[in-house]
């Protein structure tokens, strides 16, 4: 009798978890996203479930007259627009890198468009020049919205291209 109760509970837990998972969108290991407030369309992103925070490549990061200023990407990047961005609302947050070292970074909120939906995302500003992808998407953003399938790529981008 105890065994059947245990099996029934496990089955119920599994079914509840399955219903929860089916509400999430499957995203691949890489994709392209829009950042409309930053003026970027189809920016390459890497999905990193090992990272908690999301980050974007910036240069010339600093504070001027109480506002955060930054240039996104660099002149060598094909999507570079040379426009200095100003943020009146920002935070300074501590981020632990994959090698275990902590550093303070500026963090801003903006809009990201994936799968034809707009989401608010918090991005830390970092020097990702040596990295292949200018944007890294971490668990904080992915949680409760996406399931990652590492065998897939560019699902959101393909969906947006098939619409046109």
TrEMBL record:
SUPFAM superfamilies: Acid proteases
Domain Retropepsin-like aspartic endopeptidase stretches: 33-152
Protein origin, superkingdom: Bacteria
Protein name: Retropepsin-like aspartic endopeptidase domain-containing protein
Organism: Nonlabens tegetincola
Source taxonomy: Bacteria, Pseudomonadati, Bacteroidota, Flavobacteriia, Flavobacteriales
